[in-house]
Automatic annotation (TrEMBL):
Organism this protein belongs to: Candidatus Brevifilum fermentans
Segments passing through the bilayer: 6-30, 51-72
Region span, Disordered: 113-135, 255-309
Protein name in UniProt: Uncharacterized protein
Keyword annotations: Membrane, Transmembrane, Transmembrane helix
Length: 309
């Protein structure tokens, strides 16, 4: 499927107008030169008027192309946003970070800090990992971030939401973009309650406009309940922020492998060697008392010895 962004459309229109201006000018001059050679007055005047008309049109096309190049794209963005997921804008209304700031009202001298939250800055540890030498385009645009556990083959979110129950697993933050400079540095920062927990930074290798995402797949026990914030930067310039919430307790099922240690009692198999008591049949030689039957024979002999006349 062919995807053309607004910037490419404007450039194409300007090129068409420039080519049309050149061709119209050539045709107009051609009409003037040939019109002077026509001997008939009426036909000569008609050809000359047509030639001047084409020249005037070519002159008007030049400033029209200049106006289109400089003002058409901003005018289009007034009526059309680059994101087809504009219906997902309720994610913008979920700005609990501003409602959390009352904790700062405990120290009135710090109440000026909301100006910092309105324009986030790139942390030095992330900025130091920049690898790009291509300057970013300050006119780059990003749509609101939409969060989902899965995306389709076109990088569109599947079952987007603003709240996720533990265990979350992998999470995607999808967006659309325009006017990106290929090779410029971009960064995505994931915060939990103001604490940086994950970030991605690399040169931009996709096109100037289209769809993209940032993702995070930590171990389950790293998904802590609370409010998460994802910030996107182009170079050091902040572009957009998205929010979502994780519900439920921290999943600790990964600790369950410890019961595998309980298999160590299988080492207690040596007690099964208590089968040695089966060797107690050695006491069966006590059958030798059966030899005590000999005294019964002595009883039979006594009557024969006691015969008296």
């Amino acid at each position: 499927m062919l995807k053309i962004d607004i910037q490419s459309t404007v450039f194409t229109a300007v090129i068409i107008m420039g080519v049309a201006a050149i061709l119209t000018l050539i045709f107009g001059i051609n009409h003037l030169t040939k019109g002077r050679k026509i001997p008939f007055f009426g036909k000569r005047q008609a050809r000359m008027r047509r030639g001047w008309r084409l020249i005037i049109i070519s002159i008007l096309l030049i400033p029209l192309a200049w106006v289109t190049l400089n003002y058409a794209e901003p005018m289009v963005y007034v009526f059309i946003t680059p994101s087809p997921t504009i219906t997902q804008t309720p994610t913008v209304t979920v700005t609990p970070s501003i409602t959390i700031t009352p904790s700062i009202t405990l120290t009135p001298t710090i109440t000026d800090t909301p100006s910092i939250t309105s324009t986030p800055s790139l942390p030095p540890e992330v900025e130091s990992k920049s690898e790009s030498e291509v300057p970013p385009n300050p006119d780059a645009l990003f749509s609101p971030i939409v969060f989902a556990r899965r995306v389709d083959e076109d990088w569109q979110p599947i079952d987007p939401a603003e709240e996720f129950d533990n265990p979350v697993g992998q999470l995607f933050g999808t967006f659309s973009y325009n006017n990106m400079a290929v090779g410029s540095q971009w960064s995505a920062l994931w915060y939990w309650e103001g604490e940086l927990v994950h970030f991605q930074t690399r040169p931009w290798l996709d096109g100037t406009g289209g769809y993209g995402y940032t993702n995070w797949e930590p171990p389950d026990q790293h998904w802590r309940p609370g409010t998460y914030e994802v910030q996107i930067f182009v170079g050091t310039q902040w572009k957009v922020t998205g929010y979502f919430t994780v519900l439920g307790e921290i999943v600790t099922s990964t600790v369950t492998p410890s019961p595998t240690w309980t298999q160590s009692p299988t080492a207690s198999l040596p007690p099964t060697q208590t089968d040695t008591p089966t060797r107690t049949p050695t006491s069966t030689p006590t059958v030798t008392p059966s030899q005590t039957r000999w005294p019964t024979a002595t009883n039979t002999m006594t009557p024969t010895m006691t015969r008296r006349p």
